[in-house]
């Protein structure tokens, strides 16, 4: 019997981030797809916000939201540390995690994933073309920022692979499934993402296929 | 000479939250109003996201974003602890902090503050009536949730006053300045907020007046 359960959606960046975190810490998990739009009562008891990801530990403890889960896992299962060593390193990791879960989500991922995936699966009509245009325009400066950071540091927040890299990779991997990441124009960001893709924690995510949606050929390939 | 500087905006909930945090920890701070829309270069170097709050410590360390600052302050100035004692308490505090900084901001505060304040000060034209309607409609279930939590717990996240209360109070105090909190329909939430208002950490915030905008009479009064 698995020790813990993650309620998730396959293209939800927060859910992907938690799967990578668990993989890095070598913690086993059973996945349950949660159709959040159905607002199941027993799921709302786990997370009144009605959103994935929610991690349920063996003892029934439920933890909602990628940032909350990340802080909890780093406190309880400290190896390897994924939120930095001293308070300043930790602030830099969190600054970038909030950048991707907040700003990048608002400016890029939500525009693309909601319009292209959520609406389609829920039969909510045609995607909003101006939201998609905004997402595709905004992604460029974020990729430039990733390249700028990884020219100056080994990983996004410093010497160590961290939640900052995980947050960025979780968002970009979901968008890459949709073919919406212009890697060829951003070789610096591509080199960073190639290093991430070769990590064992990414493999199960990159192997997931969503019925009716085929990712581009380069999607699972670390040499792309 | 003050030990630290906070770049802020008077009605920005994140900035208010940091001021309350600093007050609770009895840390002195000098305030600088940052007109973020001017995108000053030296401010962008402090926070590439171009947003307030940004806290600059005496040694020049800059910390951007309410959640990042809160975690940093709780690590470096541990008394009184404002993010809970054990990992589960801490997860509950963070769940609610993310609720207010994320969900409440998206569903309520941004709709009201952007439309009524930001647009007006920047001369960006008429407020969007449907955004305002959405904000005013959504606030009710959040106030019900605050009442529900505070019937069951001494403070929102448990026995201790925490970042969860601070995040909620920061948002509600900004909206209360606009006269947009229907306290009379939500006595449970009002009782919780009355307890918050009587804390010394709130006083400087409730005494701030924004030129050209008068808050309702009850705004600074703990017995309202």
Could you explain how this protein is built, in words?
Two copies of one chain form a homodimer. Chain A is α+β, with helices and mostly antiparallel strands and 224 residues long. Chain A has a domain at 87-199: Up-down Bundle (Glutathione S-transferase Yfyf (Class Pi), Chain A, domain 2). Helix content of chain A is 53%, strand content 6%. Chain A has helices at residues 13-24, 41-46, 66-76, 87-121, 129-152, 163-177, 187-197, 203-207; strands at 5-8, 30-33, 54-56, 62-64. Chain A has a four-stranded mixed sheet with strand order 2-1-3-4. In chain A, β1, α1 (13-24) and β2 (30-33) form a beta-alpha-beta unit. The mean pLDDT of chain A is 96. At the A-B interface, α3 and α4 of A face α3 and α4 of B.
Main traits of this protein?
homodimer, 224 residues, alpha+beta, Glutathione S-transferase Yfyf (Class Pi), Chain A, domain 2
Blueprint (SSEs and pairs):
The structure is a homodimer of 224-residue chains.
Chain A: E1 5-8, H1 13-24, E2 30-33, H2 41-46, E3 54-56, E4 62-64, H3 66-76, H4 87-121, H5 129-152, H6 163-177, H7 187-197, H8 203-207
Parallel strand pairs in A: 1-2
Antiparallel strand pairs in A: 1-3, 3-4
Secondary-structure class of chain A: alpha+beta
Sheet with most strands of chain A: 4 strands, mixed
Which architecture of one domain in chain A per CATH?
Up-down Bundle
Oligomer: homodimer
Order of strands across the main sheet of chain A: 2-1-3-4
Distance between the termini of chain A: 37 Å
Q: What is the CATH class designation of one domain in chain A? A: Mainly Alpha
CATH fold group of one domain in chain A: Glutathione S-transferase Yfyf (Class Pi), Chain A, domain 2
Largest interface in this structure: A-B, 23 and 23 residues
Count of DSSP strands of chain A: 4
Q: Give the low-confidence spans of chain A.
A: none
Roughly what fraction of the amino acids of chain A lie in strands? 5-15%
Average pLDDT figure of chain A: 96
> What is the gyration radius of chain A calculated from CA atoms?
17 Å
Note the total helix count of chain A: 8
Order of helices and strands of chain A: EHEHEEHHHHHH
What's the overall geometry of chain A? globular
Helix content, binned percent of chain A: 40-55%
């Amino acid at each position: 019997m698995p020790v813990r359960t993650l309620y998730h959606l396959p293209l939800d960046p927060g859910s992907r981030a938690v799967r990578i975190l668990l993989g890095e810490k070598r913690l086993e998990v059973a996945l349950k797809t949660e159709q959040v739009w159905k607002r199941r009562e027993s799921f709302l008891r786990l997370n009144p916000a009605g959103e994935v990801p929610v991690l349920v530990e063996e003892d029934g403890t439920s933890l909602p939201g990628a940032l909350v889960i990340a802080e909890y896992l780093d406190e309880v299962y400290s190896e390897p540390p994924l939120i930095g060593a001293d308070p300043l390193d930790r602030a830099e990791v969190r600054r970038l995690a909030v950048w991707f879960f907040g700003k990048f989500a608002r400016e890029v991922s939500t525009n693309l994933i909601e319009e292209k995936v959520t609406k389609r699966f829920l039969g909510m009509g045609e995607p909003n073309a101006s939201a998609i245009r905004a997402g595709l325009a905004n992604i460029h400066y974020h990729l430039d920022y990733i390249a700028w950071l990884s020219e100056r540091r080994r990983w996004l927040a410093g010497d160590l692979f961290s939640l900052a890299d995980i947050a960025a990779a979780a968002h970009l991997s979901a968008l890459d499934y949709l073919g919406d990441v212009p890697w060829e124009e951003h070789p610096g960001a591509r080199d960073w993402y190639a290093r991430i893709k070769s990590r064992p924690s990414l493999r199960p995510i990159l192997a997931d296929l969503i019925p009716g949606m085929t990712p581009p050929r380069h999607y699972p390939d670390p040499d792309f």
